[in-house]
Amino acid sequence: MSFKKITxxxxxxxxxxxxxxxxxLREINEEDQKVALAVQKALPQIEKLVVxxxxxxxxxxxxxxxxxxxxxxxxxxxxxxxxxxxxxxxTYIIGLIAGGDSALRNPVEGAExxxxxxxxxxxxxxxxxxxxxIGIAASGTTPYVVHTLRKAQEHGxxxxxxxxxxxxxxxxxxxxxxxxxxxxxxxxxxxxxKSGTGQKMILNMISTSVMIQLGRVKGNKMVNxxxxxxxxxxxxxxxxxxxxxxxxxxxxxxxxxxxxxxKAIEAYKNQRSIG
Length: 275
What we know:
It is a single chain. 50% of the residues lie in helices and 9% in strands. It contains 11 helices and 5 strands. Strand 3, helix 6 and strand 4 form a beta-alpha-beta unit.
């Protein structure tokens, strides 16, 4: 099937090497402003995906992000931020990149063209019908991703994709295709720019809204965050002070005893009710 590969169309700007730094920055900024509007148009599809993911995760399912190059790195990044931000183990949202972890820093020749590897990786993770597979590729044609989504769909697994082109091969094997059409890149074909920015925004939306629906946020606060540094310990202490009115020293001691804001507050309220 043929489709318009907008991500490969010529930039709206030319003679970039002749421009001043100020001109380059202003023009990139003008293009970046188009990203949020493109994501806004995709909100119905993002919502459609999230409302299907939540019950699956409540039943023990996981999310797998699949991508190559920039797209793969962004998936790994979003997945890696779930444990410290929301306190879930790293086994709930998993980012897989063509070429493996070494591809996070260096390109791996031919990795994105390996049509079998992605599904093999999912099988090694004991993929099941409760899981969700989200393919990420600006072009919508990456073989590593397309074949994996096709195999997942054949096995009754929920599939979705994030792409910057309409009617792509990747969308054809996705139950929920998210098409974020940001237009040609400032540097022709450099999808690490607007496409990458939009992918990051959508991944944030998916994971954050899922975590909120799963009860990992209270009010507007990260009550399950990992206390991995002094800044976060202080933030958690202040949350407890605001919530139950303890002096700061007592709130801090309670937080460190139970390891999270949520557990500390629950323990304190339980003790008060028993007392």
